[in-house]
């Protein structure tokens, strides 16, 4: 049977705050938002993995509905959906070909 996102016992939806929003509507730009949230998601994935949990990053397009469904403020933008849970006993993992270290690390 084809797996679905809702099979996972937990779905983490990560939002990024593009700007700070005051109660009076004042906006202040946030810097390095993509970089910061990307690093945070990477650390979260590592922590989940080290805890023995399975997780993956899903980025449906468009994701605007997530903010509406979850009632998030206008200064938050959905970044990723991360289903999390213990792997099923009969789960199968695709044999993806990974780049070698020499293909991603250039020493000078
Ligand atoms: C930022 C990001 C977004 C992704 N979005 C999707 C997606 O929307 N749909 C999908 O099938 N895979 C998506 N992937 C790929 C999978 O989440 C996953 O990285 C891939 O299956 C390899 O998983 P593994 O590194 O745990 O083996 C995305 C990966 C990244 C890094």
From TrEMBL:
Protein keywords: Flavoprotein, FMN, Membrane, Oxidoreductase, Transmembrane, Transmembrane helix
Transmembrane segments: 37-57
Domain of life: Bacteria
SUPFAM superfamilies according to UniProt: FMN-dependent nitroreductase-like
InterPro entries documented for this protein: Nitroreductase-like, Nitroreductase/BluB
Protein name per UniProt: Nitroreductase domain-containing protein
């Amino acid at each position: 049977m084809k797996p679905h996102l809702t099979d996972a016992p937990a779905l983490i939806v990560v939002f990024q705050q593009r700007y700070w929003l005051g109660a009076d509507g004042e906006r202040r730009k946030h810097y390095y938002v993509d970089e910061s949230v990307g690093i945070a998601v990477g650390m979260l994935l590592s922590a989940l993995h080290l805890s023995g949990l399975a997780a993956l990053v899903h980025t449906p397009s468009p994701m605007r509905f997530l903010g509406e469904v979850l009632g998030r403020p206008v200064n938050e933008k959905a970044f990723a959906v991360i289903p999390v849970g213990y792997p099923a006993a009969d789960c199968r993992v695709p044999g993806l070909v990974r780049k070698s270290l020499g293909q991603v690390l250039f020493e000078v």
